[in-house]
Amino acid sequence: MAPKAEAACDDKAPKDVDARLFSAIERFIGSWRTERNPSENTVRAYRIDLLDYARWAKRTRVDGLHPAHRQLRRYLSQLEQAQYSRATVNRRLSAVRTFFQWLNVNGIVPEDPASALSGPKQPHRLPHHLRPQDVAALLGVYGKRLDSQGRDERTPSEMRNQALLEFLYACGARISEASGLLLSAVDFDQGQCRVLGKGAKERIVPLHDLALSSMHTYLLFARPLLVKDKECPYFFVSTRGNQMGTDAMRKMFKQALAAAGLSSTITPHDLRHTFATDVLSGGADLRSVQEMLGHASLSTTQIYTHTTPERLGAEHHRAHPRG
Fold first, then answer.
1. SS3 readout for 128-170
2. Which of 20, 91, 128, 269 is catalytic?
3. Within a 10 A sphere around the Cβ of 239, how many other Cβ atoms?
4. Nearest-CA neighbor of 163 among 190, 139, 146?
5. Which of 239, 309, 316, 317 counts the highest number of beta carbons within 10 A?
6. Which one from 92, 97, 160, 174 is the annotated catalytic residue?
7. ∠ CA 301-247-251 to the nearest 5 degrees?
8. Contact status, residue 145 vs residue 137, Cβ threshold 8 Å
């Protein structure tokens, strides 16, 4: 069966890529998507990186399915010589290592030549978070505006934008999680919602009162005007009543930054970092923050402990016998 599967993919192989290697890459992507359930962005990035490796292999006349360890080292070295960033080199290394591990486990290649590969060390960077005054400015862009008769004069889109920004900061959600938030997943009575994170892992996250208020206002007064006569299962909807996509959310975020007079380099993920930093500074324990962020490993959450020296000093004085 395997040769037939490869033959089916041969016609689709780009001219600058070996057909056998292309077939193996496509089979790996299909298997990996089923087993790991990664996001489509991750799948797309892995395919791009593996096809880059495949093009290099054909260009340099390397057997891409059975390279020697030194040949893979040469591939990484040439990426660095081409002045790719360390992050890009490490991302491509990750794709190649995962690919060859799959090939080896499935008996397609007898050895894993990528297992001992190591990439360039990444500089240690602390997550960027916003100052309290910057958060206030951002969340104030679409805040309530009353006319002379005390009525909210915001458009439905502005009410939605306010609810979305408050939601992102309220629970540190990823932009993809906000886009995928279901209407049925928000529980206003309990003050929480169910978020579907990476790997289709669901978690319950609490929401503070200000976020709940903005989201409830949007739900009652804005969302019905946006969906009109459509039925949409998603909480945040576009002006046409469909699911609001991540690109539209990022565009809105950039517009809010400009209106707030903040740097255009700030991202929605920085708001996630800000949430984590702020709740830790407020006294939340690391394990709880891990659960709220949906981190698989506590070590991922620990990066935020380095951004709160005030809390570290307070804990030292509180706990030390001579503090």
1. CCCCHHHHHHHHHCCCCCECCCCCECCCHHHHHHHHHHHHHHH
2. 269
3. 13
4. 139
5. 239
6. 174
7. 95
8. no
**Nearest CA among 124, 131, 97 for reference residue 270:** 131
| 149 contacts 12 by C-beta, under 8 angstroms | no
Catalytic annotation on 304?
Answer: yes
**194 contacts 125 by C-beta, under 8 angstroms:** no
Catalytic residue among 128, 198, 203, 254: 198
Residues 79 and 96: beta-carbon distance below 8 Å? no
Residue of 27, 160, 272, 273 with catalytic role: 272
CB atoms within 10 A of CB 93: 21
Catalytic-residue membership of 269: yes
Rounded to whole angstroms, the Cα distance separating 194 from 226 reads 23
Q: Which of 53, 142, 234, 304 is an active site residue? A: 304
272 catalytic, yes or no? yes
Q: How many CA atoms lie within 13 A of 264 on its CB side?
A: 4
Non-local (6+) Cβ contacts of 94 within 8 A are: none
Q: Note if 295 is an active site residue.
A: yes
